[in-house]
Structures are given as C-alpha cells and as structure tokens.
C-alpha cells in the first residue's frame, strides 16, 4: 500500500481528483493517510473531512519564526509515515530539510508545460496570464518530482491543453485543471503505486 500525504492550500480540486481516483480504484494500492494545509480556511480540509481522511493545518501564522513552521510541517509529514508526498496546489516553499528527508518522494502538479511558464513567481493565475500574454496555442500541466529548485525536478507526466480565442486567465485555468491536472495527477500516483507493488 502506497501511503500518501497530500499538501494543499486552497480549494482542493486536485485533492478531490486524487480522492476520487483512490475510491474508484483508478489509483491502485494507495491510501491517503493525511491532508496537510497551511491555510485553516482551505476548502480542501472539508473535502478531507467528508471522506474521513485525517486532516491537519500547519500555518506559518502560528509560528514566530519560519524555521519553527518548517520544523512543524516536517513533523506533521513524518508522523504520517508517507511513501509519497503530493503537493496539490500547495503554495508554500518546501523546506530544504523536507526535500532532503524525502528524495524522489515528493511530487508537484504545475499548471503549464514545463519548462514554459514555471519557476519563481509562476503560480496560480500568473501562469495562465503569462501563457496568454505570450500567445501560445497550447499550454497544459506537468507532474514532476520536487528537488531543491523551483519546478526543476524530473518530469513524470505532461498533458497539453488547447488555448482558445477569447480565453481569460480564469477560463484557461479551469480548462487546464479539467483536461490536464485532474487527469495526470491521479495517473502519476497510480504509476508510482504500481511501480512500488512490482518491486
Ligand atoms: C492548480 O491550478 C494547481 O496547478 C496550482 O494551484 C491550483 C490548485 O487548485 N498549483 P486546487 O486547490 O487543487 O483546486
């Protein structure tokens, strides 16, 4: 059984896609053992509760020093004894100690075809604003391993999505989520779970 911790900051639609994949059996041999949010108001926490998944909030606001928040975050992850950590719209810079503790065991979903529109400053709607400003005809999403850089780790899966006339950043964001993110994030977890079982 692949033990997965999912880290979230917001609405949690990617978390929902993973929950649905586990419950439908599309993601094999996998259990979501904990959801961690840095934001106590994240709707993702309610999604976890609805599915009886252990959910905790570790907020930087509760710590005077960033180092103390980083330590608490790592502790919340470690307690759950994960085989895989999934960053599903997690807007926190992953502390170096966490990356060192879980090499090739942290994956992230990014809403563009890396190496386009990625790196420092490219998150949320900014990614789609940049894609529209550049006039690309296709964008998409990427699931990649997390290393010390920003969006620089090995790519696991990508899926292109067409940009259409009249797209706004919000419309494009929604299409990229529906057609790419919610598809390849569960797929990538299933690939990792299946590899683990065959070892
Ligand atoms: C997604 O666009 C994801 O790629 C980005 O943040 C958004 C998260 O959405 N990093 P949700 O919280 O999963 O609904």
Task: Give the cofactors and ligands.
Answer: 5-O-phosphono-beta-D-ribofuranosylamine
**How many beta-strand segments?**
7
Question: What is the CATH topology?
Answer: Rossmann fold
In which order are the strands of the major sheet placed?
Answer: 3-2-1-4-5-6-7
Strand content: 15-25%
Label the CATH architecture. 3-Layer(aba) Sandwich
**Low-pLDDT sequence parts:** none
Order of helices and strands: EHEHEHEHEHEEH
User: What would you call the shape?
Assistant: globular
The CATH fourth-level homologous superfamily: Formyl transferase, N-terminal domain
- The overall pLDDT average reads 97
- Structure class: alpha/beta
Taking all Cα atoms into account, the compactness measure Rg is 16 Å
The major β-sheet equals: 7 strands, mixed
Q: Cα distance, first to last residue?
A: 12 Å
Structure description:
- By secondary structure, this protein is an alpha/beta fold.
- The chain has one domain: Formyl transferase, N-terminal domain (Rossmann fold, 3-Layer(aba) Sandwich).
- The chain has helices at residues 13-24, 43-50, 66-79, 96-101, 125-134, 169-198; strands at 2-8, 30-37, 55-57, 84-87, 106-110, 138-145, 155-162.
- The protein has a seven-stranded mixed β-sheet, with helices on both faces.
- The structure holds 5-O-phosphono-beta-D-ribofuranosylamine.
- 5-O-phosphono-beta-D-ribofuranosylamine is lined by residues 8, 10-15, 44, 88-89, 109-111, 123-124, 177, 181.
